[in-house]
Inverse folding.
């Protein structure tokens, strides 16, 4: 829709003096107008509305006068264009209300979806720009617990969403593979592995050792000194320490890759803190040269000059580096390598102060070095935080042994999905069994079960805490992942049963009913929802839109005709059937795309 560009032109022609003084901004810029357009709460007031109250002083007129003048001008400008058949405007108080013609709206929206298919909603706004997304970032020698799920699937979703807009997206898994916790792990293995009959082949064994260390350290603090010494040896390249560390890492990666495959999560780069060992000193030297470092109680720090943030600790008294040191070094390395448009860290809210410190250190360094704006990462690095995953009122801790393995959750979800499929679609199992054993039945069940778990996290705004309640996570009713997947399967079945080729010669006047128009409006909104999701780093917006689309389509599907009979999608009325199947195809395309962006599979049958 070209309303924004036409409205900007109307404002320029009606208020030339204000335009000359203001330039291409506010109401004189199409992009600014597009950002101000809103949807009326009352649908009878139009499809969209542009409020003009805030521009009364700028334009030297009252809001109703502005709205009336601009509305009339827009209609005149559109009169000879293709847009005239699609939209019209009118002024109501201080609003310019925009109405769409139902048939033209159906033709324009469905036509675009049928033509563009999975590229609907995509554009090249991110072309030649790089976005880094760091997510998952699990610690080695630890299990992949439910607490790691949100970072993993949120980051994976953002990677896909930004890819939709043509960005060069680099998904990074930055493993926690260094630090004093590995000194603890080494000491625990050396002391208790034989006693606990533990080997290095199972992450659960390593977790038991880690928990055992902390239990024993509460009674014997000298164990912490031994752990610090072990990590110092590791940093110094001790062969035995490095061998154990490598073994812990290999065992961990083997498990992580298995979980990522089940989740359908991918990365472009898998690295870790250890890879930055030779990158820290150059950054520390830059900070020293810029006179930003000082010594406090024997430790090397950067005073951030901020009452809300403590100093950033770069080195402890014993010279050991910290997680913050490695992140600061990582910022410098990524900027030098990628010169990114944005670098996103999808990490829990508990790390908010840590990232504020790291980003502030780099901002101070760039300012002290007098770098030109184009050579600064300041403002381009962002912490995409999210809330806790809680079990009841409790958060989880590996140290205390309070953890639920994600793989156990996914297995249970798949088992439940198999039970549901057996209950609701026994013919699917029978057909699969007749063809080739269980056929694709177990894979469909896994897609549904894993989808249920993923959707339980994605259907909540990321900054909110999520209570992991088994009954709700594994629910297959209501606003859930399986509900959307079932809707997709139903749409696929309708298209298959319809047996008609969807061609452009559709009578769109057959899709002007209130139920169809609601679906079409929601489909038309989908590209903007994707833009909003990228702008706010919020995949939840996609889940909300898909649920709206599915609910609206189900009203079409379940509608009764004037006789009270089911008003079926497929009937003897060929033109009507063809038009309705075109709508079905458009809805299926958008739901499949949205499920993909969220990280869920879109089964063709359930």
């Amino acid at each position: 829709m070209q309303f924004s560009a036409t409205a900007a032109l109307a404002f320029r022609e009606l208020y030339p003096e204000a335009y000359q003084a203001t330039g291409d901004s506010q109401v004189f810029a199409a992009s600014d107008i597009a950002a101000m357009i809103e949807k009326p709460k009352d649908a009878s007031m139009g499809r969209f509305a542009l409020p003009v109250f805030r521009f009364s002083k700028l334009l030297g007129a009252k809001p109703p006068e502005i709205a009336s003048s601009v509305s009339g001008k827009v209609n005149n400008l559109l009169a000879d264009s293709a847009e005239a058949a699609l939209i019209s405007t009118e002024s109501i108080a201080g609003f310019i209300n925009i109405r769409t013609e139902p048939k033209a709206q159906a033709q324009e929206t469905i036509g675009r979806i049928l033509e563009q298919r999975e590229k609907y909603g995509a554009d090249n706004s991110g072309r030649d720009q790089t976005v880094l997304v760091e997510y998952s970032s699990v610690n080695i020698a630890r299990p992949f617990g439910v607490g790691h799920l949100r970072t993993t699937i949120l980051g994976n979703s953002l990677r896909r969403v930004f890819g939709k807009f043509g960005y060069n997206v680099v998904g990074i898994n930055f493993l926690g593979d260094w630090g004093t916790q590995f000194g603890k792990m080494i000491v625990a293995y050396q002391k208790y592995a034989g006693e606990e009959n533990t080997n290095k082949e199972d992450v659960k064994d390593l977790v038991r050792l880690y928990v055992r260390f902390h239990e024993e350290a509460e009674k014997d603090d000298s164990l912490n000194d031994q752990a610090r010494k072990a990590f110092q040896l590791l940093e110094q390249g001790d062969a035995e320490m490095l061998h154990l560390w490598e073994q812990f890492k290999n065992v961990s990666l083997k498990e992580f890759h298995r979980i990522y495959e089940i989740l359908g999560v991918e990365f472009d780069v898998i690295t870790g803190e250890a890879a930055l060992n030779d990158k820290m000193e150059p950054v520390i030297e830059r900070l020293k040269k810029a006179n930003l470092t000082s010594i406090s109680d024997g430790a090397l720090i950067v005073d951030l000059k901020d009452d809300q943030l403590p100093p950033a600790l770069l080195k402890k008294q014993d010279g050991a580096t910290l997680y913050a040191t490695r992140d600061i070094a990582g910022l410098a390395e990524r900027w030098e390598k990628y010169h990114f448009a944005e670098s996103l860290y999808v990490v829990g809210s508990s790390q908010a102060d840590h990232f504020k410190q790291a980003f502030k250190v780099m901002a101070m360094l760039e300012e002290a070095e007098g770098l030109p704006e184009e050579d600064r990462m300041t403002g381009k690095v962002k912490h995409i935080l999210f809330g806790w995953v809680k079990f009841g009122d409790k958060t989880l801790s590996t140290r205390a042994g309070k953890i639920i393995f994600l793989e156990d959750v996914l297995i249970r979800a798949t088992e439940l999905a198999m039970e549901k499929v057996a209950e609701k679609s026994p013919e699917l199992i029978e057909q699969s069994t007749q063809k080739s054993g269980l056929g694709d039945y177990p894979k469909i069940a896994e897609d549904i079960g894993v989808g249920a778990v993923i959707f339980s996290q994605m259907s909540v705004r990321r900054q909110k805490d999520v209570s992991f309640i088994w009954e709700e996570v594994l629910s297959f009713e209501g606003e859930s992942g399986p509900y959307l997947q079932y809707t997709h399967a139903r749409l696929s079945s309708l298209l298959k049963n319809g047996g008609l080729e969807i061609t452009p010669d559709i009578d769109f006047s057959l899709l002007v009913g209130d139920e169809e128009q609601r679906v079409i409006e929601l489909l038309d909104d989908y590209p903007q929802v994707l833009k909003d999701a990228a702008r706010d780093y919020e995949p939840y917006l996609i889940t909300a839109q898909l649920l709206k689309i599915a609910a609206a389509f189900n009203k079409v599907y379940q509608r009764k005709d004037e006789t009270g009979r089911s008003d079926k999608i497929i009937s003897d009325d060929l033109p009507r059937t063809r038009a309705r199947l075109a709508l079905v195809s458009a809805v299926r395309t958008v739901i499949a795309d949205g499920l993909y962006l969220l990280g869920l599979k879109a089964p063709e049958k359930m």
The longest strand covers residues 168-175. The chain is about 55% helix and 10% strand.
